[in-house]
Amino acid sequence: MKNFKLHILLFLFLASSARCQEKIQVKPTLNYQHLDYLYKEVVLPNGENGGIIHIYSNYPNYNFDIEPKEGFACVDDAARALILLSQDKSQIQKAKRLTSFLLYMQNKNGWFNNFIWEDLSINTNYKTSVAKPSWWSWRAFWALKAILPELEKRDTTLAKNVENSIDKLVLNIETYLKNLPLGLKTVQGIEVPTQLPFESAADQSSILLVALILNYKRKHNPEVLKLIQHLADGILQMQIKDGIAKGAFLSWENQWHAYGNLQSFAMLKAGALLKETKYTKAALLEINHFYHYLWDNKMFSSIEFKKNNDNTLIVKSNVFSQIAYGIRPIIYANVEAYKQTGETKYKKNALKWLTWFNDKNIASTKMYNQTNGRCFDGILSKTKINKNSGAESTIEALLSIVAVNSITKIN
């Protein structure tokens, strides 16, 4: 009888333990396998050994594809990969090759072209590849700044070339930002600043802000510090202060979209650098309120707002498609909030949002496969998944895992 009771108690204990384990969300494991598949070493037309990242990898065989108007590889994805690999010393050779590719893509005008064709010639004409102040130039800036400290230890010639590239780009950025008009414009009753790239593109501004902060920490250029404050003040004006979306940083004009919405992360970085609590508080407002609204509603892809009698209202919202690039900025912000405040809720938030890559998403589908390193390209509906696994989704998933790894020892 006594043994029977012991068995019952043991059974109940194990059952309870199993239920507890079910509640613990296991982090996906970092796996470079699919990224390695997307990566290719090439001899660039300038004679340098470079590395490219194939943009498209299509289900079911994950063959490569090419966009007929753009090309087969681009600065955007190479820069993403470089930001990722710059954090892993075992990946330095790939990082160096990607660096050479980015340098090759810098136009004589100082900005970056984005796409290349299969013969490795540069696409200089299509609208998403023109060398101008836009996403790919900001992302290249961030990536080159991220890898530079490691290059200085290992390849002084390449490091010097990177320095020259960045110096040219920073001069362009100074001129560009100083020529943007200071002021406000009204869209659907919402006042937004004109001092940001593309007259209120806070999403692009956040990437540029991160890169400028890295630049300032290295060179302590007072002019760069002014640019940092200029951008941070503009982003601050893009925040919604009331309503159910309280704290949200608009992406452009009166619109919020998930992809590239890195404002809270960038504002936390700016707040720490400038010792300006207004930037930090604004970032935490979005993290503490709007991010919870997104989670409770199983995420949105975009929301459009309007102002009515001093009340901020949602005009329309879209749930799909949901992509890794929309999740990673939220994880980055929570990780940075935890690093700055030490409050465990932000670590828990980061871990919670990482489970989107498991199956805690609106489609209840595992988006990232840790056995091969693939991340599906998107959730199209509650029942339909885009099972392609291109560069953007793959790298954004890996960046998310690395970020969470930096604040927790649990694998």
Characterization of the model:
- With about 400 residues, the protein is an alpha+beta fold.
- The chain has a domain at about 30-180.
- It has 13 helices and 16 strands.
- It has helices at about 1-25, 35-40, 75-85, 90-105, 135-155, 155-180, 200-220, 220-235, 265-275, 275-295, 325-340, 345-355, 390-405; strands at about 40-45, 50-55, 55-60, 65, 75, 115, 120-125, 185, 190-195, 255, 300-310, 310-320, 370, 375, 380, 385.
- The strands form 7 sheets. It has a 3-stranded antiparallel beta sheet. Strands 10-11-12 form a 3-stranded antiparallel beta sheet, with no helix packed on it. Strands 1-2 form a two-stranded antiparallel sheet.
- The chain is globular, with a radius of gyration of 22 Å.
- The protein starts with a helix and ends in a 6-residue tail after the last helix.
Termini separation? 42 Å
- The helix/strand class is alpha+beta
The order of strands across the largest sheet is: 5-6-7
Q: What is the number of beta strands?
A: 16
Helix and strand element order:
HHEEEEEHHEEHHEEHHEHHEEHHEEEEH
Helical proportion? 40-55%
> How much strand content do the residues show?
5-15%
- Give the overall form: globular
User: Helical segment tally?
Assistant: 13
Radius of gyration: 22 Å
Unreliable residue stretches: 8-24
The profile of the biggest β sheet is: 3 strands, antiparallel
Query: Quick check: average pLDDT?
Result: 94
